Amino acid sequence: MKEIIKTDKIDHIGIVVPNIEKALEHYKNVFNKIGSKPIISETQNVKISFIKFSNITLELIEPISEKSPISNFLKKNPLGGMHHIGLEVDDLNNTYSDAKNNDLEPLSKPVKGYHGRDLFFLHPKKMMNTLFEILSKN
């Protein structure tokens, strides 16, 4: 079987939350982990914080306006929930082409993320109803 998405690293799990400060406090109490200071991505209209574990990072995401691409997710899931899985690849442009040529329906061409890394998402209906974010290594 052909390997379309060449990766062996889950970079993060994205979790949408209605209030990032409350979520950070909750995860601190549950896991004894301190999250990063929230940052705001004006282009995505979200507030983001990271909680690092030894083998994975949780990316907490709160929409800050109706223009946010995740505001509809929060409307459907008022308590929040798992939004996506981020996978890191060595060659994002080739991965994008391979995904497109193999009918995985990337939701957009690669764009620059808030963290400076290029990324694109695969359509959930092509990925067993799971949203995958494909990220460049650097």
SSE layout and pairing:
Elements: E1 9-16, H1 20-31, E2 39-41, E3 46-52, E4 57-63, H2 71-76, E5 81-89, H3 92-101, E6 111-112, E7 118-122, E8 132-136
Parallel strand pairs: 1-4, 5-8
Antiparallel strand pairs: 1-5, 2-3, 3-4, 6-7, 7-8
Structure description:
- The protein has 138 residues and is of the alpha+beta class.
- It has a single domain (9-136), classed as 2,3-Dihydroxybiphenyl 1,2-Dioxygenase, domain 1, CATH 3.10.180.
- Helix content is 20%, strand content 33%.
- The protein has an eight-stranded mixed sheet with strand order 2-3-4-1-5-8-7-6.
- A hairpin with a 4-residue loop joins strand 3 (46-52) and strand 4 (57-63).
- The longest helix has 12 residues, at 20-31.
- The radius of gyration is 15 Å and the shape is globular.
- The two termini are 28 Å apart.
- The model has no long low-confidence stretch (mean pLDDT 95).
